Amino acid sequence: MTATRSDGTGARRAGAAATEFDLTAHWRERARGREGWDNAPALVRDLSTRFTATVAEAIERAGGVPGRTETEFVTATWYGTSHVAEVMHEQLREAGPKWLDPEQFLHYSPHAMVSAAALDLGLGGASATLVGPDAEFQAVAHAVRRIRSGRAATVVVAEYEALTPFAAAPCPDGPGTAAGAPPEGRATALVLTAGGGRGPFLTVHRSGEGEGADAPAGRAGTTVRTAGPGLLRLLADAAEPLVVVSRAAGLRDALVLG
Length: 258
What we know:
258 residues, 31% helix, ten-stranded mixed sheet, 10 strands
């Protein structure tokens, strides 16, 4: 019989918020090519504002966070904004001189969303941005482990997505994509804390060698789900026990909400 190793008692989900927004106007600007370049930075400015507002709402619903200057912040995204990559791609295909507006470099890094929100909301603890299809799972696991280990009392976990046409074209299975239609932009934030208060606990379980992914689910008395786009929204809305396993190849780690 194998055993699942739990990374401690976990963290409490103290507050959550989520938003979705229409990307049609931004996609329309991208379709204009050169004529729409001047408006390209508006996509990321809009996203940054919405992302920060979502994090602020989650903190408010948590009743605030004690010690904002020590509160940590980890964010996940599949594609970031793909903003600079898309504009560079378009401009290099145009005839004539090649250029890139210096303002756009401000929005290049996926971590720019976290930096802007942390500065605006006064969150001064360690921060990180994880990118890729398993990023949401790993961001939550990282936050729970930081709290479990005593390195942080509060961690804000967030995700965002605002696919540009450049990012969506080669990724038909990406978050929110639909043939011929702009996907919805989205942002979600959870506030995880140590100790008391209201809200269910999140724990991280690391499967022992040879153990099936259904073992944590069986112990929790619920079915197993596989992590994917919108994991944080699933955790934010869940009212019943829930087990989610990583989608990364070779990993059977699980998040248990209960």
